[in-house]
Design brief:
The protein has about 475 residues and is mainly alpha-helical. About 75% of the residues lie in helices and about 0% in strands. It is built from 17 helices and four strands. Helix 1 crosses helix 8, helix 4 packs across helix 6 and helix 7 runs antiparallel to helix 12.
């Protein structure tokens, strides 16, 4: 990649931690809601699509999978676009793409056309909105960043509570085609959120120019030198294999148990309602002074909790059991959602975050593309939802162990090197210790201090004579 001016705002600007940042937070809240809730809310239409096109569960699951894969896999492309054109223009174009994809999907006559429109085009549009909104949030908040991330992440469950029942109502009254058309119109609100992303401007001091933007590459690959970043990326990629599988299949699971369609869709509302309070709470706890240094380990616990919930949810055999599963899954899922990008920001810092998030999302894209379809294949082969939830739980549990053990090893290495440093300290003291026998003549000192001549009546100060 060639060098270019990166849209990170002028250097030296302190994050306002408020002010217009609250408007940016609201825009990020809406964008996050559409980006994460939309792939789950679309699953409400799967039964109708299966009947119309004569396809299986795995075929319809590809729609949600492609949506998430575009959201994740286009990360580097979004980073380059943001660094080249800025956050606001990229988000405006993304809002138009997201709306256009769903409108076009309402006229599709085959599942392949749905993959291209509702999957690729809408997914690209959401990606061009999601990543820039997080970058802007990172610029506007520093001390309050954990709670800001938690509040922004709460957009996902809020919109899930709204979009899932709305999708069921639209399907009942207008069919899946009319539902897709109306949802496409709703996605135009992403353009309104893009207008809120006002760039930070440095104040001019004394009429002079403000701080200048730094010249950086469009995509900074130096983040891979950070072992903490590499461990985070690997763990997050494994986690994504199973993280999104239960929300995609829980509605179909309930319908398979004979639960009415409206009550089945209400499970996502329960999950989302719990998630609404879990995310800000997790963000508030992470922002505490005593907890913030250990946010990585809190994130690892959140993943472990989520994986364990999947394993216990596999034993549900009635609607009540699925309700209990959705409650605990909402808590753990909210913790993961509130912490995942806060931990990444803490690892790489503000200046490298725009590139780091793009690279992480790219690594997670393959896992997102594999996760729900593999669950659908397993369901088509066994017709037992229990195995799908067990597989998802095992994958998320593995990711928590990778993150925990990897960071433990990183922190233990510097501690192991401390005895060597302590042993070498006496040797360094001997090298730097001045000789005892050396004596300095006072006449030499006076000659040294007056070595520089006076110029224009003023003594020329040297580093040795200046205090």
């Amino acid at each position: 990649m060639g060098g270019a001016v990166v849209d990170e705002g002028p250097t030296g600007i302190k994050a306002p931690d408020g002010g217009w940042g609250w408007a940016v937070l609201f825009g990020c809240f809406v964008i996050t809601g559409f980006s994460y809730a939309f792939p789950k809310a679309v699953s409400v239409f799967f039964k109708e699509l299966i009947r119309e096109f004569g396809i299986g569960y795995s075929d319809t699951a590809w729609i949600s999978s492609i949506l998430l894969a575009m959201l994740y896999g286009t990360g580097p492309l979004c980073s380059v676009c943001v660094n080249r054109f800025g956050c606001r223009p990229v988000m405006l174009v993304g809002g138009l793409f997201a709306s256009l994809g769903m409108v076009a999907a309402s006229f599709c006559t085959s599942i392949i056309q749905l993959y291209l429109t509702a999957g690729v085009i809408t997914g690209l549009g959401l990606a061009l909105n999601f990543q820039p909104s997080l970058i802007m949030l990172n610029r506007y908040f520093s001390k309050r960043r954990p709670i800001a991330n938690g509040l922004a992440a709460a957009g996902s469950p809020v919109f899930l509570c709204a979009l899932s029942p709305l999708g069921q109502v639209l399907q009942d009254h207008y069919g899946w085609r009319g539902g897709f058309l109306i949802l496409g119109g709703l996605l135009l609100n992403c353009c309104v959120c893009a207008a809120l992303m006002r760039p930070l401007v440095a104040p001019k001091a004394g009429g002079g120019p403000g701080p200048q933007q730094s010249c950086r590459r469009l995509l900074d690959l130096s983040v891979f030198r950070d072992r903490g970043f590499v461990i985070y990326a690997v763990a997050a990629s494994i986690m994504v294999l199973g993280l999104f599988v239960p929300p995609v299949f829980v509605v179909s699971y309930a319908k398979d148990l004979g639960v009415p369609d409206t009550k089945a869709a209400f499970l996502l509302t329960i999950l989302g309602f719990i998630d609404i309070f879990a995310r800000p709470t997790a963000g508030f706890i992470t922002g505490l002074k005593k907890v913030r240094p250990y946010s990585v380990y809190l994130f690892s616990f959140a993943m472990f909790f989520n994986g364990f919930t999947d394993l216990t949810g596999s034993t549900a055999s009635n609607y009540g059991g699925l309700v209990v599963f959705c409650i605990f899954f909402g808590i753990s899922y909210g913790m993961v959602g509130a912490l995942q990008f806060e931990v990444l920001m803490a690892i790489v810092g503000t200046h490298k975050f725009s590139s780091a998030i793009g690279l992480v999302l790219l690594m997670e894209a393959v896992a997102v593309l594999i996760g729900p379809p593999s669950g659908g294949k397993l369901l088509d082969a066994t017709h037992v939802y229990k195995y799908v939830f067990i597989l998802a739980g095992a994958e998320v549990l593995t990711s928590s162990l990778v993150l925990l053990l990897g960071n433990f090893c990183i922190r233990s290495r510097p501690e192991a090197s401390k005895p060597k440093a302590a042993a070498s300290a006496p040797e360094e003291e001997k090298l730097h210790k001045p000789p005892v026998d050396v004596r300095v003549d006072s006449r030499e000192v006076e000659h040294f201090l007056k070595a520089e001549p006076e110029k224009n009546g003023e003594v020329v100060h040297t580093p040795e004579t200046s205090v």
